[in-house]
Structure formats: C-alpha cells, structure tokens
Amino acid sequence: MKTHARLLVAAACLAASAAYADDFHGFDPAKFDGNMLSAEALKAMAADASKVTPPKNGGKYSIGFANLQRDIAFGVLVEKGIQANADAAGVELVVADNRLDGPTALANAKSFAERKVDYVIEFQTDANFGQTVMDVFKQDGTKVTAIDIPMPGASFFGVNNPKSGFMGGSYLATAAAKQFGADTVKSGYLVIGALPQSGVIPRMRPTTSSRSIRRTRCRNPIPR
Fold it and tell me: Cβ contacts of residue 159 below 8 Å, gap of 6+?
C-alpha cells in the first residue's frame, strides 16, 4: 500500500502546484512513511488541488492508470492499492492494461487523451515507446508519473536501481549458498532475468546484481 499512497499523493501535490509543496495538509515529503493517508486528508488534498487546477470535466478528478499487465500478481497488487487510494480521495481511476507492449501502451495513451483525464500514471515497459507516448500527453499538457521505466518529461517513480540490484544479488548469493552449500555455489551458475526493452535504467539492477554475486566467488552468473 505504501507505493500506491505515494503515487496518489504525488499526483495531488503536482496538480496543486508548488504553492502547496511546503504545507499541504501536513504532508512533508521528507517525513512521509508511505502509509495510506486518511480518507479525510486525501479528499482535502483533492479539493485544494481542484481549486488551483480544476478538473477537465468540471466535476471530480479523473486519473488514468496504465498498468504494466493486469493479470500478473504484482500488477494486481499495484492496481488494488492505487484504486483504494483513489476511492478514498473521491477520484475517478481510469485503468488500462499495457500488456508489456509498447504499441498497446501508445493506444492506451491515446484513449486517455480522448477521455481527457487530468493526470496519468504510466507503468509501461518499452523504453522505445516512451517519447511517443509522452508526445500524446504533451499535446494537451497532461502531467505524467512514470513507474520504474523513465519517460522523457515525466516525473519518475522508482527504486534506486544500482542499490536494489546490489542488494538483490547479495541476498540471492547468500540464499543460494545456504540452500545448496558454498562449494556448489562457487562452481555453479545463478541465472538473472531482465527485460532489455526496458532500457538502461532498469538494466542497472541485473548489472549490479552480477557484480555482487561475483563477490561471493561464484562463477560468472548468466544474465537472461
């Protein structure tokens, strides 16, 4: 739930402009623990934001969320969390499925633009389509937050890729040694999965994972 709370609060703050950055219903980005805020706080944020940037439909905010893929466990959890926060804030959430596919993400972006959503949260994995998707939103000035895979001109919401990759590799090597024995691990291989289409930023994770695994004196892991 923490990730989803941050995304909705970020959307509200950006809609409300920098005027509320220092005092937005007690919200302090430096101290925010990521837990879902109360419905009262979320509704108050949405109400204040709408005074600065009125909803395009004249009613309540409509936020487009293009999920990575709706039928995988992680995508389901992310969507449920964002939906819960949107419901609490009284915000309409328009959900689309990018299906791990660039052309599909572009079609979804055009659909969001036609529906005149006020803000977009993009979770799409094909870095080659990042600029094309953003061009759709730039035409009417729709702001975007990109999850995990950066998109030109969008706010980025993601992990510290080198750090998380290093931590993941260390934990993987330690768990493998415990499960199979240190000697087996030193002479064996650990396979690391990755999606090359996601671009150079997410690729930092498997790259640093490989380095941390090598420090355990394993044979070179095989990236996939």
Answer: 148
Distance between start and end Cα atoms, the chain: 30
d(CA 171, CA 42) in angstroms, rounded, equals 37
Predicted confidence (pLDDT) per residue in 150-193, tens digit = 999 999 988 888 888 888 888 888 888 888 888 887 777 777 77
SS3 130: helix
Q: Which of 111, 118, 199, 107 is nearest to 152 (CA)?
A: 199
Give per-residue pLDDT as tens, 103-156.
999 999 999 999 999 999 999 999 999 999 999 999 989 999 999 999 999 999
Quickly list DSSP for 154-169. Answer: SEEE---HHHHHHHHH
Written as one letter, the residue type at 208 is T
**Longest Cα–Cα distance in the chain:** 66
CB-count exposure of residue 177 (10 Å: 0-12, 13-18, 19+): middle
**At residue 26, what is the residue type?**
G
